[in-house]
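Figure 2 data, in text form.
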Amino acid sequence: MFQTELYKLCHKKITGIGFLCLVFIAVYYFYISGIADTTVVDGGKTYQGMEAVRADREIARPYQGLMTMDKAEQILDKYGYADTKNNTGNNNFCNDFVTRYMTNSGRDDGNGIHLYTPEESGFTRQVEAGAVTFGYTRGWSSFLESYILVFVCLCIYLSMIITPVFSEEYALRTAGILLTTAHGKKKGARMKYAVCLSLAVGLTLFMFAFIFLMYGFVYGFDGLKASACLMDMVDPRTRMPVWSVLALLLGCSVLAAWMHTCITIWISSCFRQPFLVVILSVLQYLAPWAVNQISLGIMPISLFSMWLRRITTLFPFYLLFAWGYQDPVGFKIFKLLFFVAFSALCLVLARRKYSHYQAGR
């Protein structure tokens, strides 16, 4: 039964075409946001693309390991401050990082550009305390952007391929026949769930591994041991290494894909038009983002708006970003319990709706 249900969802042309589109988006964004966007200037010589990545890795290699104020001074003595405004002088990952995070280059305080002292900067205090491990993380910063974009596309793709699980049987009027078989109401529904959830988890793992390996082979895996605070999209106060953040991202993306699939299964059980189910599934996925960006953007800050924003983080679109939130432990536990309860509720309601199809309910 599993193979039969899998074939029903995957034999359509849209499944293969959509998958190839996902792979194309991943490769294209990897190129334009990573390789093509990398420029290194060293000693007056400018490197671009793959040459820039190789040069950047070579420059960063001697400074890998525990970050210290001495290392920061050595980088500035050798390469100078990175001119982020005019792009003059030396520009590489090392001096760009030190200039942005450990100096006052972004502030015009009238004292001239200089390294922060521990009293001036919380990040410098972390360095002084030996809490920051330096490594080449340029590629892993780009990985976060790339994977998040691909994952959003993946969820829309899941909406399209999972939609027929119930709605197509309604549309073809085969549901009534299948429900009269020995395993129609119980095992049949469970097999549908197993196929849909296996596809969601399998595709999520595949796309993560595919993008991870692309970035790893080009930018190197040694940056995984560095502190995650070196990455652009991560809170500078984060104490975890890069590999921990990526592991959390993978876990959150699997949970988000799982919940999105459960919701789509429930919607599919409620309507007989597959196209309508696709639209509703995509809308429910993007709804939390719309509430956050549109509604809350014009609302005054209040207890209601703060809780409404928190509620939107419980659903698939923002569940992906749960690794980056500094939520209290209690709210993190509530998130996990909500995920389990809401996912289970969607599957229970879908099975109930499907099993009562014969009665015309």
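Caption note: DSSP finds 15 helices and four strands in the chain.
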